[in-house]
Design goal:
The complex is a heterodimer of chains A (114) and B (119). Chain A is an all-beta fold. Chain A is built from no helices and 12 strands. Chain A has strands at 3-5, 10-14, 19-21, 24-26, 32-39, 46-52, 60-61, 64-69, 74-79, 88-96, 103-104, 108-113. In chain A, strands 2, 5, 6, 10, 11 and 12 form a 6-stranded mixed sheet that branches. A 4-stranded antiparallel sheet of chain A has the order 3-9-8-7, with no helix packed on it. In chain A, strands 1-4 form a two-stranded antiparallel ribbon. Classes of the chains: A mainly beta (114), B mainly beta (119). The A-B interface holds A 4, 33, 35, 37, 42-47, 50, 52, 91, 93, 95, 97-107 and B 31, 33, 35, 41-45, 48, 50, 55-56, 58, 88, 90, 92, 94, 96, 100, 103, 106-113, 115.
Chain lengths: 114, 119
């Protein structure tokens, strides 16, 4: 069974700073996908970024980028030039290829202070 | 285009009662999944349905059941409610198919959830 671990329950940074959220996972699968989802107080889970395990290049989406280390089973999220609207719970998630089941971590509560 | 819609948004039940939660996927999405998110935790997978058939089930008791209709909408039913069933229930849809259409087909789009409180 796969497991996902987020070791930082809470983080807080000032607006415009850069912040990195950590995620590690455990799997015996070789082909899989990794995701970061954001859940603001409105409750809706919103996809931030996605990484295919077979791609060596790290995914980027505007201010969001990942550091994917397959051998270390690590998948961190970097948010550059943080904004107040980035305040939310952030969940790291794993999905093996061919399946539709997401395995989530416990989440990191990120607060961006003005 | 409308996103994934769920109803009701909030509901309160008492122990032993039954609840039905509803979900309408994004137009064109044939796969619907259900997740339970207890306060302070990450979501846990309950079910996945595709083309009206159950394609995956998480570690939940038989009190939990679901179905998918010909229009791809879905219902989650929970019988004999327990206090521990209090949670946010999330529905997600995707383009997933038996044959992978593209790598993007595995991306789940979530609804805003149904908050269930059991007293």
């Amino acid at each position: 069974a796969q497991t996902v671990t987020q070791s930082q329950p809470e983080m807080s940074v000032q607006e415009a700073e850069t912040v990195t959220l950590s995620c590690t996972y455990d799997t015996s699968e070789n082909n899989y996908y990794l995701f970061w989802y954001k859940q603001p107080p409105s409750r809706q889970m919103i996809l931030v970024i996605r990484q295919e395990a077979y791609k060596q290049q790290n995914a980027t989406e505007n201010r969001f980028s990942v550091n994917f280390q397959k051998a270390a089973k690590s998948f961190s999220l970097k948010i550059s030039d943080s904004q107040l609207g980035d305040t939310a719970m952030y969940f790291c998630a794993f999905m093996k290829q061919g399946a539709q089941k997401l395995v989530f971590g416990q989440g990191t509560r990120l607060t961006i202070n003005p | 285009d409308a996103g994934v819609t769920q109803s009701p948004t909030h509901l309160i039940k008492t122990r032993g009662q039954h609840v039905t939660l509803r979900c309408s996927p994004i137009s064109g999405h044939k796969s619907v999944s259900w997740y339970q998110q207890v306060l302070g935790q990450g979501p846990q997978f309950i079910f996945q349905y595709y083309e009206k058939e159950e394609r995956g089930r998480g570690n939940f008791p038989d009190r939990f059941s679901a179905r998918q209709f010909p229009n791809y909408s879905s219902e989650l039913n929970v019988n004999a409610l327990l206090l521990g069933d209090s949670a946010l229930y999330l529905c997600a849809s995707s383009l997933w198919a038996d044959r992978l259409i593209s790598s993007g087909a595995n991306v789940l789009t979530f609804g805003a959830g149904s908050r269930l409180t059991v007293l």
